[in-house]
Amino acid sequence: MPECIAAIDQGTTSTRCMIFNHSGEVVGKSQREHRQIYPQPGWIEHNPMEIWECTQDVIQAAALQAGERGYRVIGVGVTNQRETTVIWNRRTGLPYYNAIVWQDTRTKQICDELAQAEGVDRFRKKTGLPLATYFSGPKIRWILENIEEARSGARNGETLFGNIDTWLIWWLTGGVDGGSHVTDATNASRTLLMNLKTLDWDREILDDLGIPIEMLPVIVPSSDPRAWGTTKATGALGEAIPVCGDLGDQQAAFMGQACFSPGNAKNTYGTGCFMLLNTGDEIVESKSGLLTTVAYKIGTQPANYALEGSIAVTGALVQWLRDNLGLITNSADVETLARTVEDNGGMYIVPAFSGLFAPHWRSDARGVIVGLTRFINKGHFARAALEATAYQTREVLDAMQADSRMPLTSLRVDGGMVFNELLMQFQADILDIPVVRPTVTETTALGAAYAAGLAVGYWENLDDLRVNWKVDKVWRPQIDQATREGLYRGWLKAVERTFNWIE
């Protein structure tokens, strides 16, 4: 019976299980959405128990498909929406509070207070991150400050913290019955609590945030031959399967895109947009508003690092056109509507719904629509929404080249929006470099499968993974330099209009 690897891809809006064979082909797949909870403006939550239920459902459905095709799963990898924070009781397995999502901005006051003495870069030398509502550490502090049961549980050793990877691995390996409480170095590097050099929790930062180290998971490699346990609650997989791969979603896509050499870069187009540049074993401190992060750590090998530009709202802007404005019925309709006009008509949309991430890091910003005239119609809205993704990516790419001094010659892309031909062509136009889509675009799940597969010897080394990466389509720049820079100047003016909206 041929073998295969299962990947659980737990994202911001849905959970998927995808099962891959040795060539990286999908032999089983299932997906299920979960609710988005908005208690008040700026607050975004998920129900952790609902996510676990969805996970069990999609594992069983995907495993049955693979089984019907004669495949046997021999390893499980997990990838997840990063920074989203869960705190639960180790004895009951129940969360003390909903998961606070990475986009949530309720911790602004906590971040501002921490930044008073030394500024937003107070922890950057150790963590590679600025003080921002984005990261897990301030979210943990908010829950401990506001939820009495979580606070008292932390005092008596019953409270556990994890991002979604930790939550799922704990349940997959037994939950209240001895589940493994672990996270990998990529997810840990997004908490604002891990020292990039030591790859361990930083006790000084924990003291500053008032977080007991006892509630934190053990930091492990992204691909770990030791495994952290075997599946207990997923009967459709058959025999107990090692759970041995774990990566944050963007690092998983990085691995799925085979970005293993310094200078390789990828951009993932999803709810937000995330560009990573491989810097090898060098920790590059950003001077241009980027994040320094762990890209992956394989077994006992040294960690590999990356510069990252995180953009909060890209695909979510298309959803906003659909759900809030009713301009389109389905997200895929945005390209058809955008093609009804020749350009943006001088209009720009800057979707700073919860502030701006890289390279600005402005939690005081809010979204703007500028350049409106009587000429503007709904087609211009659709086109401006797509272009906003490309412009934000250009800002990140410029910052990346300034920090790394590595001129990018192409950009590998993945995620749901890469099938939007208009967007991908405009992306190449505004970046002035080729944009490359691989044949397998489910790179986030594929990267998690690679991590688990390397751990169990299904793939021998990174060269095996490079062989699997193949080009599907390339978009090349088609506009002149004067047009490109004129459009981009308009975008930068629009971005300035978002600043200082929240006092």
Outline the structure in words.
- The protein is α/β, with parallel strands linked by helices and 503 residues long.
- It contains 16 helices and 22 strands.
- The protein is globular.
In short:
The protein has 503 residues and is of the alpha/beta class.
- In the sheet with the most strands, the strands line up as 16-17-15-14-20-21-22
* Share of residues in strands: 15-25%
The largest pleated sheet is described as: 7 strands, mixed
DSSP helix count?
Answer: 16
Structural class from helices and strands? Answer: alpha/beta
Count of strand segments: 22
Structural features:
single chain; 503 residues; alpha/beta; seven-stranded mixed β-sheet; five-stranded mixed β-sheet; 16 helices; 34% helix; globular
Give the SSE layout.
Elements: E1 3-10, E2 14-20, E3 26-33, E4 45-46, H1 48-68, E5 72-80, E6 85-89, E7 99-100, H2 108-115, H3 124-127, H4 136-146, H5 148-155, E8 159-163, H6 164-172, E9 182-184, H7 185-188, E10 194-195, E11 200-201, H8 203-209, E12 218-220, E13 243-248, H9 249-256, E14 265-269, E15 273-280, E16 291-296, E17 304-311, H10 315-323, H11 333-338, E18 348-350, E19 368-370, H12 378-404, E20 411-414, H13 421-431, E21 435-438, H14 443-455, H15 462-468, E22 471-475, H16 481-496
Parallel strand pairs: 1-5, 5-13, 9-12, 14-20, 20-21
Antiparallel strand pairs: 1-2, 2-3, 4-7, 6-8, 10-11, 14-15, 15-17, 16-17, 18-19, 21-22
Helix pairs in contact: 4-5, 9-14, 10-12, 12-13
